[in-house]
């Protein structure tokens, strides 16, 4: 499988973006809404399906689009092709605070499983598919880890993870228990399953969920410290409820603002 070979720079700290350098004729594919900027001379085209070179004919395009629809992504993929005579750059930005991870699929066995919202962009030729977890436990209780994106090929792909990222290498038979939302990606040799926490009290009051992801080597697994679902739930919990009548950070100060006590403290009441 022939892939475009691209150069890149990852810039920024908490809110990163990746600049992909394209030679004449080379192209990158990006998730909808991820493009930040591009040089003049790059042509942007939206295609049906995942945009991979091996996706041929109407049936192949429908199959690629169907895979993306199941994972909750757009039916269309945007391809950025350098139509100029010199090198051009296109940049893709992360959707929330975290890290952008370059994944060389050729060095990872040609296949990478990742969370369905982790893919950001890739060199043209990388195939975007889906992978259903085969275990019943993962199917019924896996949550975010049940349906995952499968990246295939021998080129570069970029995935995004929230917070701080840890890469763990597991030996054959070595097992790691992880919060299901904290699994970013893993190589094809990893066995993925869901495990019950084991104690009713822990399940009900521990705050960590009833099930954990169980990954067993050999292979590599990438973990994130801030899953987007966790970030979203914290934002929702802190947001004002019922049209703005929720709790405010400065509720004590707000309560005193309309009374005489605050006026006395600030010297506004001489009595």
Structure, described:
This protein has a single domain (7-238), classed as Mitochondrial biogenesis AIM24 (Double-stranded beta-helix), CATH 3.60.160. The chain is built from 6 helices and 19 strands. The strands form 4 sheets. A 6-stranded antiparallel sheet has the order 5-6-3-10-13-8. A 6-stranded antiparallel sheet has the order 11-12-9-16-19-14, covered by helices on one side. The protein has a 4-stranded antiparallel sheet with strand order 1-2-7-4, with no helix packed on it. Strand 1 and strand 2 form a beta hairpin. The protein has 271 residues and is an alpha+beta fold. 33% of the residues are buried.
Instruction: Report how far apart the termini are.
Output: 85 Å
Number of domains: 1
If strands are numbered along the chain, what order do they take across the biggest sheet?
5-6-3-10-13-8
Mean pLDDT comes to: 77
CA radius of gyration:
23 Å
Q: What name goes with the CATH superfamily?
A: Mitochondrial biogenesis AIM24
Please tally the β strands and state the result: 19
- Give the second-level CATH assignment, the architecture: 4-Layer Sandwich
How would you describe the shape?
globular
Q: Helix and strand string, N-terminal first?
A: EEEEEHEEEEEEHEEEEEEHEEHHH
Which range best describes the helical content: under 10%, 10-25%, 25-40%, 40-55%, 55-70% or over 70%? Answer: 10-25%
List keywords for this structure.
alpha+beta; six-stranded antiparallel sheet; 19 strands; 271 residues; 40% strand; Double-stranded beta-helix
